[in-house]
Amino acid sequence: MASDARRILILDAATEVFSHRGYAGATTDQIATAAEVSQPYVVRMFGTKEKLFVEVLRRDLDRMLAAFRAQLGVESDTPLRERLGLAYIDLLQDRGLLLSLMHGFVLGSDPVIGDLARSGFLDVYRFLKNEAGFSADDATTFMAQGMLLNTLLGMRMTDKYDTDEDARELLGCVLHAKLDFMLQVANQSPAVV
Fewer CB within 10 Å, N or C, the chain? Predict the structure, then answer.
């Protein structure tokens, strides 16, 4: 396998391992096992666990912004705000992306990871204001709704959908037309890797 393909394979495995175990709980050995490569190979390719996590976080932020930018040129009767929201929900079928971003966001005190998380978050805010044409208030509301969605899905609130009326109502209010889609995605995702 070419080194570029192995790099992608390791990043995919790292996304899953970090998403389920967090930065502190994940090891390069677990990532190597998930990628079916040797642990020394992971270290040789990325250097440290921190550098690998930074690559995962950077890639996830880039994927999110690319999905948003792809909506700018779409001709549709659906308002841009709604298209961006649907594009974001579509990204969440990769549960690893969601959870890796969440882990990055909570590491604000880490000098390297925290700086990247803050920069990435501000890049999304700037995109919404400068490229999508949102007002500061609309950009803030959009991001707040996205973080609520992340939180609900990260804590697996979908697990309560069938047994708790308030969970069902909350998920319906946040997910709207994509509720069935997200319930399907949540049911396909393992609880722990």
Answer: N
Question: What is d(CA 152, CA 92) in angstroms, rounded to the nearest whole number?
Answer: 12
Whether residue 117 contacts residue 105, with contact meaning beta carbons closer than 8 Å, is answered with yes
User: What tens digit of pLDDT does each residue of 94-117 get?
Assistant: 878 888 999 999 999 999 999 999
pTM over 0.85: yes
Question: Which tokens is 56 given?
Answer: 């995962």
3 has pLDDT over 50 = yes
Residues 6 or more apart in contact with residue 24 via CB below 8 angstroms: none
Q: Let me know: does 102 contact 150? Beta carbons within 8 Å.
A: yes
Residue 169 neighbours by CB distance under 10 Å: 10
For helices 49-72 and 95-106, the axis angle rounded to 10 degrees is 120
Retrieve residue 186's tokens: 């949540």
Q: How far apart are CA 154 and CA 166, in angstroms?
A: 17
